[in-house]
Design brief:
This protein has 362 residues and is an alpha/beta fold. 41% of the residues lie in helices and 22% in strands. Helix 1 packs parallel to helix 12, helix 10 runs antiparallel to helix 11 and helix 11 packs across helix 12. The model has no long low-confidence stretch (mean pLDDT 96). Bound molecules: 3-isopropylmalic acid and magnesium ion.
């Protein structure tokens, strides 16, 4: 046995259970091939947890996650729960999980698959070869800052408030992940902020600049977030690693995901200082196609590969999954979201079977 791991499975809502079940079947095959034992425990989160327990992140789910080596999450949310008060919404469960596990660093790679270049809405020459890693701060900033809420004012008007704040320590720990990630890649780091307007961003920029002295091998640049958004669409290949705060990272990671043609292809890893990491696709729960066996499981499967690489230190198993994804694309297998003329249209389960088939003969 090269490893034995407790994995918490959080299938969540919408297409979540379908893509999770494909991923679990695949991991069983990977386990046999690489002599790894996975002990899976399933728990509820999001809408599924609201229906079962009345809250989006039951204490028991958090406890199961804390007691595991890694957590796989598929997707949360759906129309059914959209009008609940904020503390009961599925998204609140996800934010609680990130905070509860201390997952301050979110890695979102946007890599274009050569087979899918034409699926991008941008020109081939703009996106071919794109390989960007967004390092997003995940447990601070405007998502969590106090005060927050909707307050009555003296004029009788309500006022909605959120607060964007970062302490030096919060900036330093995510900047470090940014520099180290850049070191492992091409050595280029772009820090994104809004220092021309926001004080919180000025502190961010000062700390990141300061830390650059410790990483003389990393070439650091700074961009304002509006310019960064524009540059990502205009000339994405100028970027390698981007480090940014929670809200800007949320937005920029959707933009960089779309450069690759389909958000259905992109995985993510959320890591803390210690304890289990959380691995989830960048896409959402796609309630419009839920339960129809149409979902693309590849981002979920690639999230499991990130788990094997970043958390469980099983790079060969991770490579095998990533290679299998390339192989099925190469032979023309496609789910609806990445379908193009002349390719084989597969459902979610058939795509999972295709992956297993190629893994067995790799
Ligand atoms: C993401 C999502 C979440 C976020 C939502 C679902 C809370 O958009 O992971 O990017 O805003 O962080
Ligand atoms: Mg988002």
């Amino acid at each position: 046995m090269t490893g034995q791991y407790r994995i918490t499975l959080l299938p969540g809502d919408g297409i979540g259970p379908e893509i999770m079940s494909v991923t679990v079947e695949l991991l069983k095959v990977i386990g046999e091939k690489f002599n790894i034992q996975f002990d899976f425990t399933e728990a509820v989160i999001g809408g599924a947890a609201i229906d079962a327990t009345g809250e989006p992140l039951p204490a028991k789910t958090l406890e199961i996650c804390r007691n595991s080596d890694a957590v796989l999450l598929a997707a949360i949310g759906g129309y059914k729960w959209d009008n609940l008060p904020r503390h009961q919404r599925p998204e609140t469960g996800l934010l609680g999980l990130r905070a509860g596990l201390g997952l301050f660093a979110n890695l979102r790679p946007a890599t274009i698959f050569p087979q899918l270049v034409d699926a991008s809405t941008l020109k081939r020459e703009v996106v071919e070869g794109v390989d960007v890693m967004v390092v997003r701060e995940l447990t601070g900033g405007i998502y969590f800052g106090q005060p927050k809420g909707i307050f009555a004012t003296e004029t009788g008007q309500k006022r909605g408030v959120n607060t964007m704040g970062y302490t030096e320590a919060e900036i330093d720990r995510i900047a470090k992940v940014g520099f180290e990630t850049a070191q492992k890649r091409s050595g280029k780091l772009c820090s994104v902020d809004k220092a021309n307007v926001l004080d919180v961003s000025q502190l961010w920029r000062d700390r990141v600049t300061n830390m650059a002295q410790e990483y003389p091998d990393v070439e650091l640049s700074h961009l304002y977030v509006d310019n960064a958004a524009m540059q990502l669409v205009r000339a994405p290949k100028q970027f390698d690693t981007i480090v940014t705060g929670n809200l800007f990272g949320d937005i920029l990671s959707d933009i960089s995901a779309m450069l690759t043609g389909s958000i259905g292809m992109l995985p993510s890893a959320s890591l803390g200082a210690d304890g289990p990491g959380l691995f989830e696709p960048v896409h959402g729960s796609a309630p419009d196609i839920a339960g129809q066996n149409k979902a693309n499981p590849l981002a979920m499967v690639l999230s499991a590969a990130m788990m094997l690489r970043y958390e469980l230190n099983q790079p060969q198993a991770a490579n095998s999954i990533e290679k299998a994804v390339s192989q099925v694309l190469e032979r023309g297998d496609r789910t609806g979201d990445i379908m193009s003329e002349g390719m084989n249209l597969l459902g979610c389960t058939a795509m999972g079977e295709a992956l297993i088939e190629v893994i067995k003969i790799q």
